Amino acid sequence: MNSVFDFALLSINRFGWKNLSIAFIFALLVWLLSSVIFITNSLKYTLQSVAEQTSQILINKQIGGKSYPIDKQDIEPLWDMAGVSYVKGRVWGQHYLEFKKTYISLMGVSSFEEHYNDKITKIAEILPQMDDISYMYISKNMKDLLKIYTSSENIVSFEKLGGGHERVKIAGIFKDGSELFSNDVVLMNEESVRKILGVDENKFTDIIIKVENPNEVDFIAAKLTYKYPHFKLTTKSEILKDYELLFQYKSGWFLLIFIISFITFAIILYDKSSGLRSEEKKEIGILKALGWEINHIIYYKMLESLILCMGAFLLGLSLAIFFVYFLQAPALKYVFTGYSELKQDFDLPFVFNLKEFFLLFFSTVPLYMAVCIIPSWKTATRDVGDIIR
Description:
Elements: H1 2-14, H2 16-53, E1 57-63, E2 66-68, E3 70-71, E4 84-90, E5 92-97, E6 102-108, H3 118-126, E7 134-138, H4 140-145, E8 155-159, E9 165-173, H5 179-182, E10 185-188, H6 190-197, E11 203-204, E12 206-211, H7 217-227, E13 231-235, H8 236-273, H9 278-289, H10 294-326, H11 333-337, H12 354-362, H13 365-380, H14 384-388
Parallel strand pairs: 6-10, 7-9
Antiparallel strand pairs: 1-2, 1-12, 1-13, 3-11, 4-12, 5-6, 7-10, 8-9
Helix pairs in contact: 1-10, 2-8, 2-10, 8-13, 10-13
């Protein structure tokens, strides 16, 4: 058995350039397909994480297609709606950094503590205790972005909408597991957000509503729409549907990549299955003349193809993991999420789906081995004289 394995290695080395080119193309296809799968799984995981934190009903005030702040007095009557268990006005908005030419999201942390996650709740509990100066928590990417705005005391001066500046000190870094949506977020006291964005004390950016019975969300949303025609209501299911539509639209590009990759792979398989080269046929004939049985030749060819395709597969998979999760898939991930200089970069969370790994493995490696073994088997069953001639 060892001698057959050694001979397979020698055969791979003997046809070095040919085998190297095939292995390179195979590894490139596996890298591309694996990268697409990893990016897709990471984005799906991020969307699912956000879905768990999304409010059941979101209310914005729109008149003539333009959004306006919501008066505090509009919130109280919502508590009287049957089936409503929680109502909260939120203060948040986009702040433009002139020097960086980008937007960041400022969020009043108390507006999000009840429905977002435990980390936000803890931050909301800590911030009010720091009343000597305004404090904020930022994401990892925001720390790098705000570096040029940060003084030696870790204080950032935000330009207020009405003029002047609001000095806010960085209290720490937060990470909630969905960096696609939190990478540009700054969490600070609601009072500081109001000063920077120019939101009056008795107004809110939007309203979130929780419903006791999840099955009644659409019904209550319809009642609210009828009662408050100037409110624009968005339910959790509608938000998720929009995400899914965006995901499906962008996945068309990935489908195109898949099709191109498999067509290329099919061409390689066709070239291998069309027959052996004269040198390979002559080699099989000599082996038969030396006393090798057909099963020995098949075993040798199986080892040869297995070493080649497994090496290329593992190389392509390793490069894909490095490319997506260490280099963060430069350029390729923006095919899915879109690119804009106004948006902050984000990190893809590591997600490894065994089912899709095995699907990719069994749709490439066994097929390649089969088209390598079958022509060799056909040649090995012929007479030695016919093969050598």
